[in-house]
Amino acid sequence: MATRRSEPEVASPLEVFGIAADEERAYRQLLALGTATAEEFAHKLSLPVRKAQRLLDAIEAKGLTTHSLDRPRRYVPASPDIAIEALAHQHQQAVQRARGMIDELKLHAVHGRKDAQQQDQLLELITTPDVGRLVYRQIYDSAEREILGLVRPPVLYSVLSTPADSSAQQALQARGIRHRSITDAEMLSIPGFPERLRADIEAGEEARLASVPFKMVLVDRRIALMYLHPDQENSPSLVIRYSALLEALHTLFEILWERAAPLSFTREGELRKGSAGSRLTKDDEDLIWMMSVGMNDKSIAHNVQVSIRTLERRVAELMQKLDTRTRFQAGWAAAQRMSDAGTPPKLNGKRGAKRFTR
Question: What is the structure's pLDDT at 332?
Fold first, then answer.
């Protein structure tokens, strides 16, 4: 069973600027005092004068305070709106310089390869699960416009062992990123997943239901991560950068999206499924209703007045039309539609005695 790795807690947002917790406390105290000598500062913090002086020197080096030319020196805190803005600007410049190295490092990696034809590295195989999860998170976090996802079992236990949290989806919405996902029907039977899906949908994710052939995340029509063995929990994965293959995966997602059924939840938390792209005939609806209420093949064949073999063929055609892999999925998908419509079919001239309930 996979376990969720705890991440180190960040004591303060100022740590990103290299300001330690004791330095932040010193700055806060100096702001409260307004001005102070090293001895006054040491007395206020109940510190030895030498340690207090080291703290003052440290925050002065980071632009959080200045000192007078008097003897003894008096330390005056820098205004937060100036000091923190200056540090933020310096940090942004450092980030930009780091980003500027991306192309240089990619060229360096190219020159280090023996095969010059691999220089674009359009495909990258990942065989270690931990690395795969890290790359997934990096690709996900790099999104600027859209995230497309194909979701199907199996899933890591750690993904569903934590309470549903919509903060990540809310962050995407705040950045103006559209997130669409197509979920395999089998996912809805996994404990904890419907609650997580509901939280994401309510936070802005667009979700639909269909038969999903493999797991994938595709970002900005630029890069994708695809799992090579759909039924393996720790499957090797393939990073796919912009290429004809990536375009093909994007086109496949859009085709599946058009055929998939929209998902939503009521205020009471009840799952609602809209109509998929392919239309069902009245005969299809009658057939699927009988399947959903638990009638066996012999009874269904009798009601629709066909042979068992003909019934099997019609069920297979229906599963293909609904884009499902099993009869249960087909029955669930279509019965959802008819339940929304609220009109069960007639069975030999009589209304079905049983109603499908969710």
Answer: 64
Tokens of 291: 């399947």
Region for 349 from its dihedrals, namely left if φ exceeds 0, alpha if ψ lies in -120 to 50, beta otherwise: left
Dihedral (C-alpha) 92, 97, 99, 101: value to the nearest 10 degrees?
-170
Taking 50 as the pLDDT cut, the residues of the chain under it are: 1-10, 110, 113-119, 157-161, 278, 340-358
Fill in the amino acid letter for 130: D
**Rounded Cα gap, residues 165 and 196, in angstroms:** 7
Question: Looking up tokens 């994938």, which residue turns up?
Answer: 216
3-state secondary structure of 62: coil
How confident is the model at residue 226, as a pLDDT? Answer: 92
Indicate the burial class of 200 (C-beta count within 10 angstroms; 0-12, 13-18, 19 or more). Answer: buried
pLDDT of residue 221: 92
Q: Which of 325, 336, 320, 211 is nearest to 285 (CA)?
A: 336
Contacts 24+ apart (CB under 8 A), 80-89: 80/31, 84/14, 84/17, 87/17, 87/19, 87/62, 87/63, 88/17
User: Is 47 strand, coil or helix?
Assistant: coil
User: Which residue do the tokens 């939280």 mark?
Assistant: 199
Evaluate the omega torsion of the peptide bond into residue 154 and state whether it is cis, within 30 degrees of 0.
Answer: yes
220-222-228 Cα angle (round to 5): 105
Identify the DSSP state of 8.
P
Strands annotated E in the chain: 65-67, 75-77, 123-126, 146-151, 178-183, 206-209, 216-219, 223-227, 237-241, 261-265, 271-273, 346-347, 350-351
Global pTM reads 0.49
Cα angle value 283/284/288 (rounded, 5°): 120
pLDDT single digits (tens) 171-199: 888 888 899 999 998 888 888 888 888 88
